[in-house]
């Protein structure tokens, strides 16, 4: 990337943090046009269009530095997807990568919406919410408490719905609260609860002489509890009940922490409204046992206690028990596909449960011939991780003329090639922002391949 002209550079591009935007535009967009469009959101300290060192032509990338983080976040929220000049493609706006971050951040990044504050120990969660609600709509507040005494530690989290609201709270609130953006939540095996204590999980599995008996000990070191799971009440399927309005995506992400989940569906009434129940099924009994042990009574979101119990949804429990011993040794933590463990011809996942999505999908259609000319390419960003190619092909082929699916190795992005532009536009309109099998997708038009003769042609 070209360096910024030294005469325009502030002393610290990351001061304050998250005050610089990364903008993907058309190559014809000028610095003046960017400045005019973004100046309504606050004091702009600099606009830089990245140019090719050889040709001095715009690369279609620009940086915009604001005086305040809240201004940059507000600009990102409002301008992402807008068309600046008639006839050009919609722009993409992100918070630019800083030295403390490894990536650009977008409007849906949780790390930009959660703040950490120091509060009086007498504060209740209602006091915390009342204090910070003037800066924007609050999704939830959490006060960190001592695990044993239940007393407040004088620390808390406030989660807003928008990054600009969190940034505004940090900038304006009383300095005594020492408000900062909260550290991202760890996804490692050792997780941290809201009391600030490390929670370590130890699983011990014992296979005894009777192959029908599975003894599983789930406890802290030195305090093992042995449970005999021979009882017929245990199945691979769970029913979760909640009073809070959880989405399909939230439930999937919660139960997918335990390896082996093959089915997750939020129960809805005839009008599409949540019934407050969800059916979850695992590929092995051990995973279901562990999920029930750890998530029954778990508060998510804080203040809403989940109820998780075993349920018989008609699956063949005898088949599950027959293979549970072998699966527990290799599948609970390593998560191999169920096809490696089950007998040939036995399929656990039905065709109905293959695709779980909140989008209304048409029936599958045939792929276009591989030698078809590409008329449009879609660029897809996956969160938290890419979907398998066969699932993507199943989803994106339903709009017709799909040629092929390409995932970029080592990255959470991919490309979908279509032989018909209208089919690609329809796929983008239906699937952008939707969740498939717990993965949220951002579907956008891909940038056209570069035409410079000295560049290697794209292979996807």
Helix-strand category: alpha+beta
Strand content: 25-35%
User: How many beta-strand elements?
Assistant: 22
Spatial shape:
flat
Q: Share of helix among residues? A: 10-25%
Oligomer: single chain
Taking the sheet with the most strands, its summary is: 5 strands, antiparallel
Count of helix runs:
9
Give the tally of structural domains.
4
Question: What is the H level of CATH, i.e. the homologous superfamily of the largest domain?
Answer: RRM (RNA recognition motif) domain
- Output the strand order for the largest sheet: 19-20-18-22-21
**Uncertain spans:** 1-8, 186-232, 316-353
Mean pLDDT across residues: 76
Task: Specify the CATH class of the largest domain.
Answer: Alpha Beta
> Which fold name fills CATH's third level, the topology of the largest domain?
Alpha-Beta Plaits
Q: How would you characterize this protein structure?
A:
The chain has 460 residues and is α+β, with helices and mostly antiparallel strands. The protein folds into 4 domains: 20-95, 2-Layer Sandwich (Alpha-Beta Plaits), CATH 3.30.70; 110-191, 2-Layer Sandwich (Alpha-Beta Plaits); 202-340, RRM (RNA recognition motif) domain (Alpha-Beta Plaits); 376-445, 2-Layer Sandwich (Alpha-Beta Plaits), CATH 3.30.70.330. The protein has helices at residues 31-38, 69-79, 125-132, 163-172, 248-255, 285-295, 317-330, 389-396, 421-431; strands at residues 20-24, 44-51, 58-66, 92-95, 114-118, 138-145, 152-160, 180-181, 191-192, 198-199, 202-207, 214-219, 226-228, 237-241, 261-268, 274-282, 307-310, 376-383, 402-407, 413-418, 435-436, 439-445. The protein has a 5-stranded antiparallel sheet with strand order 19-20-18-22-21, with helices on one face. Strands 2-3-1-4 form a 4-stranded antiparallel sheet, covered by helices on one side. A hairpin with a 6-residue loop joins β2 (44-51) and β3. α2 (69-79) packs antiparallel against α4. The radius of gyration is 26 Å and the shape is flat. The model is unreliable at 1-8, 186-232 and 316-353 (pLDDT under 50).
